[in-house]
From TrEMBL:
Gene Ontology molecular function, alphabetical: ferroxidase activity
Residue ranges of domain Ferritin-like diiron in the record: 5-149
EC number(s) given by UniProt: 1.16.3.1
UniProt lineage: Bacteria, Pseudomonadati, Nitrospirota, Nitrospiria, Nitrospirales
Keywords: Heme, Iron, Iron storage, Metal-binding, Oxidoreductase
Organism expressing this protein natively: Nitrospira defluvii
Catalysed reactions, semicolon-separated: 4 Fe(2+) + O2 + 4 H(+) = 4 Fe(3+) + 2 H2O
Reported function: Iron-storage protein, whose ferroxidase center binds Fe(2+), oxidizes it using dioxygen to Fe(3+), and participates in the subsequent Fe(3+) oxide mineral core formation within the central cavity of the BFR protein shell.
Identification of the protein by name: Bacterioferritin
Superkingdom as given in the UniProt entry: Bacteria
Length: 162
């Protein structure tokens, strides 16, 4: 086993909390991708598949970092996965989820600064960039739905790759 660093106080707890969140996101976005495919919304299926891959990449990086710091990655639990019967319900749930994730990441960054863990801080800062992009995407699409109406919005989502 490669030699890693010793984790600073509270860092492993934060990383594992974020990991559980990211792993939950993988499941949630895979489910939402499948629902959109099932409903015939090819573009949304593509987008959710992309989101799921991004969250897999975050999870993978977190697992590596937790191991590097001598911790045990929390792979044995997930938070509740949001299910919806309509596209706007998925968007609302995902937006709430991403906002919560952003808050957790910000809290983690503040803690890392306090304990002087700049490697973990950098990793969390990279993740928050994607999280902010996700928040922006869901907000924009919910706004579009309210502007053009759901039927018109969904008609645009039927095509495959845009």
């Amino acid at each position: 086993m490669g030699a890693g660093m010793k984790a600073k106080e509270g860092v492993l707890e934060i990383l594992n909390k974020v990991l559980v969140s990211e792993l939950t996101a993988v499941h949630q976005y895979l489910l939402h991708a499948a629902l959109c495919k099932h409903w015939g919304y090819g573009r949304l299926h593509e987008h959710y598949s992309h989101l799921a891959q991004e969250e897999v990449s975050h999870s993978s990086g977190l697992i590596d970092h937790i191991l590097y710091l001598g911790g045990a990655p929390a792979m044995d639990r997930l938070d509740a996965v949001a299910v919806g019967k309509k596209v706007p319900e998925l968007f609302e749930a995902d937006l709430a989820f991403e906002r919560e994730d952003a808050d957790a990441l910000r809290g983690g960054i503040v803690h890392c600064v306090k304990v002087g863990d700049y490697t973990t801080r950098h990793r969390l800062e990279e993740m928050i960039v994607d999280t902010e992009e996700h928040i922006e995407w869901f907000e924009t699409h919910l706004r579009t739905i309210s502007q053009v109406g759901l039927e018109r919005y969904l008609a645009e989502q039927i095509a495959g790759k845009s």
